[in-house]
Amino acid sequence: MSTRTPIIAANWKMYKDHLEAIQLVQQFAYHLKEEDYDGQHIVICPPFTALRSVQTLIHADKLPMLLGAQNVHTDASGAFTGEISAAMLARLDTAYVLVGHSERRMYNAETDAVVNAKARAVLAAGMHAIVCVGEMLDDRRANNHIKVVLDQLHASVAQLSFTDPEALVIAYEPVWAIGSGETATSQDAQEMASAIRSELAQIFDQAAADAIRIQYGGSVKPGNIRSILAQDDIDGALVGGASLSAEDFALIVAHRRL
Ligand code: 13P
């Protein structure tokens, strides 16, 4: 049995203003029982404009959820109009930051080197980095998916330093499964997660590889969460579309009793 604490994270992407965000978290919490929070980390990653509102709600209502951000800048401060630093996020009690999501790699030309620098900034600010990796459909069709993902992983986490390996989370999100309704089969997801864990042992060491959590993301729904989390090397899920529905996300988080 793994001792890794499962982590289920909601990536709201560019949906929900701060008022809608408060409502969504309240509705989500309403569906949960205390036991649903036990033994797992539940992370909400709203857009930047809603971080403060969600943080205030989490504190005021003592909700056992953690705040996450969807992006961060590499530098600590500077003349970077429109950017947000890791220290600013940490000050807001942000616990987790997504880095290298495929949408940012694709639309914002984030390279592995940028992702690496962002992860470094997140860890240095005392937060947890969720480093996203995943192959395109063509890579999988060419049976090249494992190499592509491991190369991405290697370059994205190279020389990261942490005292607690829990600070680093890897999210495996096959790009073709995002928002498409297609999920990798649980066996495919496990095959990749296991390859990622072996690679982490090479990059860091076996103890770190055993402690780093690996999430699956890509069309995670209430109907498939159980088979995904049943896999040995999958320690959680990164949920997009289904996290925008309080009912669906609650069904995902409460999968152990439903
Ligand atoms: P979907 O759950 O909508 O497929 O999105 C996955 C994702 O990109 C989470 O980061």
Cα distance spanning the termini: 22 Å
Task: Count the beta strands.
Answer: 8
List low-pLDDT spans.
Answer: none
Number of helices: 12
Description:
This protein is an alpha/beta fold and 258 residues long. Helices cover 43% and strands 16% of the residues. Helix 4 (86-91) links the parallel strand 3 and strand 4. The mean pLDDT is 97. 1,3-dihydroxyacetonephosphate binds at residues 11, 101, 173, 178-179, 217-220, 238-242.
Topology:
Elements: E1 7-11, H1 18-31, H2 34-37, E2 41-45, H3 48-60, E3 66-69, H4 86-91, E4 94-99, H5 102-107, H6 112-124, E5 128-133, H7 137-141, H8 145-157, E6 168-172, H9 186-203, H10 206-211, E7 213-217, H11 225-229, E8 236-239, H12 246-253
Parallel strand pairs: 1-2, 1-8, 2-3, 3-4, 4-5, 5-6, 6-7, 7-8
Helix pairs in contact: 1-3, 1-12, 6-8, 8-9
The structure holds 1,3-dihydroxyacetonephosphate.
